[in-house]
What we know:
This protein has 259 residues and is mainly beta. The protein is built from 3 helices and 10 strands.
Amino acid sequence: MRKFLPFLILLSIACKVQAQSWEVGASVGGAGYMGDLNPNNPLLISGANAGIMVKRNFNQYLSARIHYSVGSIAGADSTSANQQFVNRNLSFKTPFSEISLIGELNFLKYIPSVTLNKFTPYVFAGAGLTMFKPQAVYRGQTVELAPLRTEGQATQYGNKAISAIYGAGFKYNFSDAWNIIADIGYRYAFTDYLDDVSGVYAPVTSFDNDPTSLRFALADRGLTPGYPGSQRGDFRPHDTYLFINLTLSFTFITAKCYY
């Protein structure tokens, strides 16, 4: 038996190395947002998203993935139960795309068709780059809001933002190398303009002294006019958006080593 011990050790090491695996998948789900038009509901879904991912499973517990998603979020004061928001009467829809790098930690030993566990809960965290374009409908036309500088900004805010990502989910290996994954993840974006709302109402002088301009019309859409310098946004420095996703993935396995 001792003669075979070194061979068995080497076989075990090789097996564990080979059990590292690549995974590819596609996801669909809902997208939501928390910000100046939805300050309190962290589960409000206002749009949809879809994406693709490539993942590296380093061992039974740890993996990392690159994920690319596209989708949209939206908000409208007219749907609020708060009369102050209804009077403000702002609305937006923001198409976005996101590229992210996310690390995952499984609670149980899990590699599809390799480990004995067929499921595991997991948590994840990472960072992403979001490209976004807030829009509004005005007189039947869709208008991009950022170039209008609706809060009287001297320059247009950027349409890219870094986001911190965190969330949790559940993986299930339903057939050989196939997985179904459900998760919810939040994106804390380092911008306050996903909804084109942040600070205060600007005076008409910030809009070339033209109260009939498109810029001014979309800056103040209130049922009652907003006074220059009064609150337009919620003064929180960042917006947050979320994904609730269902992912179908396939894992490329080089060896089946149950341990």
